[in-house]
# Entry
Amino acid sequence: MSKIAVAGAQNSIGREILNFLEENAYPADDIYALEPKAPLGTMISYGEDEDLDVFNLEDFDFSKVDIAIFATSAEISKKFVPAALAKNVKAIDCSPAYLSESSVPMIISGLNDAQVSQAEKGLVMVPSAAVCQILRPLSKIIGKFGLKRLVVSTYSSTSVYGKEAMDELFNQTRKIFMNDTLANDQHFFHKQIAFNVIPQVEDFIGDETGCEWAINAEVKKIAGAEIKVHANCAVIPAFIGCGAFVNAECLEETDVDDVLKEMKSTKGVTIFDKHVDGGYVTLTDVQGENNIYVSRLRQDTSVDNGFSFWSVADNLRAGVAQNAFEVMKLLIK
# Structure
């Protein structure tokens, strides 16, 4: 069995990647957990009964492994991915560090698997959680009817920023219930996040945010540069999960019945769409789930061949970690 390194093993996505490896019976002896500047003696759990040593990423010898998965920031990936590639290790990057490089394909398992063969350097990328849960339900629709335009609105939990942001939500919520001031608990976000919605994910790039720009760029890299994309991104006061309203316009004639048929047969997608109160899926319903859930599927009569749907998923698990795991299996093949 292949030897696998997971860089960023102590952050939320890295932990979920380790969970997938353990759940699929990859032996602990074949897994290396890596973390920048990890102190000697650091350990991390691997399933219920085993622990892994956490090795220092700065001095790790990548010749020990066959595949390296980088669940790290773009800055860390830029610094250490070349070290893995120099040892002829195949690498998967979960950050946008190599988004602009045409020789590095971006893969959603089940949508564009064949592009793995285009990885000239042995490096592939996986997209953000939001793009995965937008495009995976559309994978068969894109192949059959083509895609002309996407308008998406995403509602991301604080986990999109990591533990520090989740802690700020927790602390603010607790203080509000205790009728305490938030003056010393508003560090990560520029606005109060508890009981609020913030229409900004990542820093501004001109008149759009980094997340909005990335959704546009990632969709085009995966599904075609000719697709028109407009994204609106907000952070909501939730700990885990991401929801997205998606309006899609196809190139070929289609209707909502065609779309429903294709989505029902798409691996990793579950349709739960009952047109009654509560007949849809929300963020709290999908925590710990592997699938992407679709509700509120309906015709968009404002355009030809248009439809819209609500997509929700555990952004850490179904959005990134599972896709990285599935792409890893493609590289092993």
About this structure: The two ends are 12 Å apart (CA to CA). The chain has a mean pLDDT of 95. Residues 76 and 190 are 25 Å apart (CA to CA).
